[in-house]
Sequence to fold (261 residues):
Amino acid sequence: MSDLMNFGYEGKAAVITGSSKGIGRETAEQMVKLGAKVMLVARGETALKEAADELSQYGEVAYIAQDITEAGAGETIVEAVIKAFGRLDILVNNAGSSFAENFEDVELSDWEQDIDLKVMSAVKMSKAALPHLKKQGGAVLNLTAVMGKTPQPNSLPTTVSRSAGLALTKAMSKDLGKYNLRVNAVCIGLIRSDQIEKRWQKQAPDLSWEEFSARSGEKIPLGRIGNTAEAANVITFLCSDLASYVSGTAVNIDGGSGHAW
Ligand SMILES: NC(=O)C1=CN([C@@H]2O[C@H](COP(=O)(O)OP(=O)(O)OC[C@H]3O[C@@H](n4cnc5c(N)ncnc54)[C@H](O)[C@@H]3O)[C@@H](O)[C@H]2O)C=CC1
Ligand SMILES: CC(=O)C(C)=O
Fold:
């Protein structure tokens, strides 16, 4: 590979939460193929092991089954990374869920769970990773949703958690730039993964995927739902040396929609 396109992943170590499937798994695959050592994190051991077995054909992969909302999860995960790889350069806060309802229908406990998973887990992971990231510099990438920029009706609590993720990204980038630590976000619109396939089965089980994608794409300028590689491509770029002067930004991966539905 010419210097012009050197992603700089060789010899680096990354941790990606929620990486047994979907966008997280695809990102892990790209980073491993480019030479990074990657720690996969999710709750279910079976899916994790399966993903790790598949990805290990391309390079060095380890995994830890851990619910990131549990007390001490950040420290446990980072300890596992250091034990496995001896360093940490890249943190991708990817694990998340969609919880989008009308304000009147959201219980206080739903608010707490959503903010805990999508905001506080990113904070706790970043805090635990920071002493290691500071050593040589690196990248933090927060997955958010385009709805965090443009909250729609019936979009709570997720739009609030996602807006908080954007503020966290911007503020962290300003505080941590002095360590050559870049902090960016991506704002996902609609990407085919388990959560979108479940929506397809619930809303339109009689449609083929192509029909459902085209129908969902009526309000998307590019006319379709994206795929996980299209999301991972941007994440992999933002965490790479090719983006060495990019920090504090939030890139939409949404086919141009500006909102999810
Ligand atoms: N697919 C889409 O259209 C959109 C996705 N997003 C967000 O992008 C990120 C990746 O999305 P997808 O790949 O679609 O998600 P997905 O639902 O396919 O996978 C999410 C991953 O997070 C893990 N996870 C969830 N809660 C966890 C917890 N407490 N502890 C550890 N792991 C946990 C799951 O096990 C899974 O591996 C998520 O944060 C998602 O909410 C945002 C907007 C739209
Ligand atoms: C789908 C999702 O995770 C959102 C909208 O935050």
The chain has a mean pLDDT of 96. The two ends are 40 Å apart (CA to CA).
